[in-house]
């Protein structure tokens, strides 16, 4: 439907989804650093792995997960396939 966006599943954080050497692969939140904010803006442990609308894997802290669920970008943790 026009104007709707697919909601991507979310998964418990799994290092195997992430590019070796990336912020996500270190177990930290990569979501709060990708959009121009500095990586240092979030050094919190990742709790979730998810793909963005372009298919790129990200990791997120608990705060990122709440934000993304509220935006309809990802499903609540545990409701993915």
Overview of this protein structure:
By secondary structure, this protein is an alpha+beta fold. It has a domain at 17-71. Helix content is 17%, strand content 14%. The protein starts with 9 loop residues before the first strand and ends in a 10-residue tail after the last helix. The model has no long low-confidence stretch (mean pLDDT 82).
Kindly summarize this structure in a few lines.
The protein is α+β, with helices and mostly antiparallel strands.
3D shape: globular
Structural class call reads alpha+beta
Helix content: 10-25%
What kind of sheet is the major sheet? 3 strands, antiparallel
Beta strand %: 5-15%
Uncertain runs are none
- Please work out how many helical segments DSSP would assign: 2
């Amino acid at each position: 439907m026009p104007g709707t966006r697919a909601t991507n599943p979310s998964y418990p954080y799994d290092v195997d989804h992430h590019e070796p050497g990336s912020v996500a692969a270190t177990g930290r939140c990569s979501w709060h650093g990708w959009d121009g904010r500095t990586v240092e803006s979030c050094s919190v442990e990742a709790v979730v792995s998810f793909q963005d609308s372009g298919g790129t894997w990200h990791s997120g802290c608990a705060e990122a997960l709440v934000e993304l669920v509220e935006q309809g970008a990802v499903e609540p943790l545990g409701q993915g396939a």
